[in-house]
Amino acid sequence: MKSVALVGSTGLVGSQILSALQSIPQKPTIHAIARREIAHDSPNLRPIIKPESGEWPTSLRTLTPVPDAFLSALAATRAQAGSFAAQRSIDLDLNLSLAKAAKQAGVKTYVLISSAAVSAKSILPYQKMKGELEDAVKALDIPHTVIVKPRLLLGTREDFRLTEAALQTVAKGLGTISKSWLVDGWALDVDVIGRAAVAAALECSEGKREKGVWILSQSEIIRLGRQELK
Hints:
The protein has eight helices and nine strands. By secondary structure, the chain is an alpha/beta fold.
């Protein structure tokens, strides 16, 4: 894997994907598209700073050479976006536009960070939106489509979320007793998720997986995310 594109690199999971990409022996060129400056500093990092996210699909589509993989950890909360409609324009519309741009550019491996227990048939707006995105990107028929579906994320966000913070506290407490028995089934450290996303991209790019859709559930994320990246 010589070159990758990444969106969401300033977020909770995306920053871990960026760190994992910077750590692998292949040292791929990383085209990180973002609205604001990226804290990471690495000789193989190529930030593409575009405050107007509407320009991102064009930036992705015109990258040369074509990246071997495109990874998206792009997401927003309703509070960050200002309304559910605005959140949907990012989580669904922008993500889908970027996936289409990747397909048009000839990207062969696409990795999307989604969430467990989402469905386009859900009556819950957030779960329905995420499910609709999953269905839409599957239909694009990118040769390798990887959808990463973790449960609760364990990590420190810039924005405080009371319910999530309370659950994280419980998970951390149980983890001191037995992470594998009491935590792994419903919560994961974000660095494990980031490493799993990169490991999956590597396997696809190196021809170790058959073409098609690959769903990474909690157990598969753990398997990939806790092994050494090679």
